[in-house]
Design a protein that fits this description.
The protein has one domain: Trna Endonuclease, Chain: A, domain 1 (3-Layer(aba) Sandwich), CATH 3.40.1350. The protein has three helices and eight strands. The protein has helices spanning 2-20, 67-79, 122-133; strands spanning 23-26, 30-33, 36-38, 42-46, 49-55, 84-90, 98-101, 110-116. A hairpin with an 8-residue loop joins strand 7 (98-101) and strand 8.
C-alpha cells in the first residue's frame, strides 16, 4: 500500500507542479554514506526554493510523527538544501495539517505534516460516477 500511496501522491504532485511551471522529481537521490544514497519521494523546485515530500502509509492518532521520520526529514532538508520538508499521510481521524521548525542554530528548517483525503475530490467523484454508470 505504501508504494501505491506514493505513486498516487507523486502523480498528483507532478501534474500540479507542471500546471504551475514548477519542477517535480520523483525519487531523486544523493550520496549519503559510503555507497548508500538518500532519496526522498518527491522534490519540488519552485521560485528558487526546494520542498521535499515524503509519503507515509501510516495512521497517526495525533499530529506527532515518529522520531525516525523527523530525523529522516531533517536529513532531507540538509542534503537537498530545502527549507521545508513535509511528511504526507492519508487523512484519518480528522487530523489537520501541521507545521513545526527544527531547533537548528545554523538554519531555519521546517517539517510539516500533510494529510491527504483519499475519498474526496475530483478523482474520487469520477470513480464513483464511473462505478455507478456500470450498474
Amino acid at each position: 500500500m505504501n508504494d501505491l500511496f506514493e505513486a498516487y501522491i507523486g502523480a498528483l504532485v507532478v501534474r500540479a507542479a507542471r500546471q504551475r511551471g514548477w519542477k517535480a522529481r520523483l525519487q531523486s537521490s544523493l550520496p549519503f554514506w559510503e555507497k548508500i544514497t538518500i532519496r526522498p519521494d518527491i522534490v519540488i523546485e519552485a521560485d528558487g526554493r526546494r520542498i521535499i515530500l515524503d509519503t507515509k502509509w501510516k495512521v497517526l492518532s495525533s499530529p506527532r510523527p515518529g522520531m525516525d521520520d523527523l530525523r529522516q526529514m531533517y536529513a532531507y532538508n540538509r542534503f537537498f538544501a530545502a527549507e521545508r520538508a513535509f511528511l504526507v499521510y492519508p487523512e484519518v481521524n480528522g487530523l489537520g495539517d501541521h507545521q513545526g521548525c527544527y531547533h537548528d542554530p545554523d538554519r531555519h528548517l521546517g517539517c510539516g505534516l500533510l494529510f491527504v483525503s483519499l475519498f474526496e475530490g475530483k478523482y474520487w467523484r469520477q470513480m464513483r460516477e464511473n462505478a455507478c454508470s456500470l450498474q
